[in-house]
């Protein structure tokens, strides 16, 4: 029997959950203080998901980069592929909070959203 330990992040308690599996199937889950821990452990064992946060380059912006995140969690196994795609992205200023930077990131159906505002550089102030 294989044993895996994780920390549940669904609430502030941070329960230390033990997952026992046999032949790739969950045999038992313990250590959770609430039902959310069981669901989290099951999902984490089968298909772990993560919100991806990073930055992309801004052209003509007051800042060189804008922070972005996926609107929903994507499979953990796709994070590297997503980062390769994101590294190719450049966005023109101005950028608004919540602006869709890219739709359907690597075929996941999940959009990338800006998490801050970046104003356009005032070209007159550069003279």
Folded structure, characterized:
The chain is an alpha+beta fold and 127 residues long. The chain is built from two helices and ten strands, in the order E-E-E-H-E-E-E-E-H-E-E-E. The chain has helices at 35-46, 79-86, and strands at residues 2-7, 16-22, 25-30, 49-50, 53-59, 65-70, 74-75, 90-92, 100-102, 112-114. The strands form three sheets. A five-stranded mixed sheet has the order 8-5-6-10-9, with no helix packed on it. The radius of gyration is 20 Å and the shape is elongated.
Low-pLDDT residue spans: none
Strand order of the largest sheet: 8-5-6-10-9
Mean pLDDT, rounded to whole units? Answer: 94
Level-1 CATH class name of the largest domain: Alpha Beta
CATH-defined architecture of the largest domain: Roll
* Backbone structural class: alpha+beta
The counted number of beta strands is 10
Percentage of residues in helical conformation: 10-25%
Number of domains: 2
SSE order in H/E notation?
EEEHEEEEHEEE
How many helices? The count is: 2
How far apart the termini lie comes to: 70 Å
Shape: elongated
Computed CA radius of gyration, to the nearest angstrom = 20 Å
């Amino acid at each position: 029997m294989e044993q895996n330990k994780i920390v549940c992040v669904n609430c502030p308690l941070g329960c230390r959950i033990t997952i026992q599996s046999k032949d790739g199937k969950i045999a038992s889950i313990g250590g959770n203080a609430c039902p959310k821990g069981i669901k989290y452990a099951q999902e984490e064992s089968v298909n772990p998901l993560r919100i991806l946060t990073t930055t992309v380059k801004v052209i003509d912006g007051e800042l060189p980069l804008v922070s972005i995140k996926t609107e929903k969690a994507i499979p953990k196994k796709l994070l590297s592929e997503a980062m390769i795609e994101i590294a190719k992205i450049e966005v023109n200023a101005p950028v608004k909070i919540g602006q869709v930077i890219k739709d359907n990131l690597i075929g996941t159906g999940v959009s990338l959203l800006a998490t801050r505002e970046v104003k356009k550089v005032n070209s007159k102030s550069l003279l």
